[in-house]
Amino acid sequence: MSNNEQEANSAFVIGWPIEHSRSPLLHGYWLKYLKIPGTYEAVGISPEKIETFIRLLPKSGFAGGNVTVPHKEAVFRLVDHRDEIAEVLGAVNTLWLKDGKVHGTNTDGYGFCANLDSFAPKWRQGKTVVVLGAGGASRAIIYALGKAGYSKIHIINRTLAKAEAIAEEFSPHLESDLLPHSWEDAPDLLAKADLLVNTTSIGMGDSGDFPLDFSNLKEQAIVTDIVYTPLLTPFLKLAKSKNYKTVDGLGMLLHQAAPGFEKWFGTRPNITPALRQYILKDLTKKVLHK
Ligand code: ATR
Question: Residues 63, 97: contact at Cβ < 8 Å?
């Protein structure tokens, strides 16, 4: 990063709508804690305006920023440079400026892995994973799991064609076997899983039951959800009630933010229990006041 860009000390998150993003709270906490005189702001950009926003970015004074729904794919197409992960995923969530050019990467997979490293480090010893869901969020996770050495990645999805499409698309980039399934295969697959990941939106924002029987899952299996509203999702609640080691999705949000902060503000921030509590307090407040 050049001195010029470091002086800018100003970053953003763009999305549409953007009001629900926790990124300003998170980066604001780090800026304050690390006493960095920078700013991080939420900017609502409609789909019609995204191209102009990216084109004008080099002259905007921003050091970079985050990209959230629905712009991750559009921004992927608009940046000047993408790294290998962004290239494979076809989606960008972190931008930075270098020599007047817009660079993009995707830190979702990193955030997912770093969260597990922090709360269930043994996850790296596993070989077989079952991923529930084949939406936008599961792509980064499936790729990261392949890179982390999982040799069998079973993808279960209601719409089988979407699981098949991900398997076909990612197979050339990974050494793992990517195996698409429908939900009826779940009981058999759970018996083989070292790690079980929920990326579906089932139960998000409410407390409905999760339609899965955990009775076949190995005792030592690790269970994780990428949804963090509520923190204890119906999926995690079920896993906890059966005494599985569980990891909630909040850490993924916190960890995926760190590489961007370092690029824009020059310091790698820590993910601490105090930060977690701070964000959690806001999440609980939002749920209560809904
Ligand atoms: P995201 O980008 O957050 O992953 P998404 O692309 O809408 O969101 O994907 C949501 C995932 O949850 C999908 O895998 C979806 O399955 P389909 O591809 O069949 O739509 C899954 N999902 C949502 N509600 C579901 C339900 N009631 N039963 C089973 N799967 C569900």
Answer: yes
Question: What pLDDT does 287 receive?
Answer: 58
Q: Is the pLDDT assigned to residue 4 strictly greater than 70? A: no
Q: Is the CB of 135 under 6 A from ligand 1?
A: yes
C-beta neighbour count of 236 within 10 angstroms:
24
Domains of the chain, first to last:
3-106+252-288 (3.40.50.10860), 110-248 (3.40.50.720)
For residue 73 the two structure tokens come to 């794919």
Q: From 78, 194, 91, 79, select the one nearest 137 (Cα to Cα).
A: 91
Q: How many C-beta atoms lie closer than 10 Å to residue 213's C-beta?
A: 12
Would you call 72 a catalytic residue per the annotation? yes
Per the omega criterion (within 30 degrees of 0), is the bond before 269 cis?
A: no
**C-alpha of residue 225 to centroid of ligand 1, in Å:** 13
Q: What is the pLDDT of residues 179-230, one digit of tens each?
A: 999 999 999 999 999 999 999 998 776 657 888 989 999 999 999 999 998 8
Helix (H, G, I), strand (E, B) or coil at 42: strand
Closest C-alpha to ligand 1, atom 30: 158
Instruction: Tell me how far apart the alpha carbons of residues 222 and 209 are, in angstroms, rounded to a whole number.
Output: 20
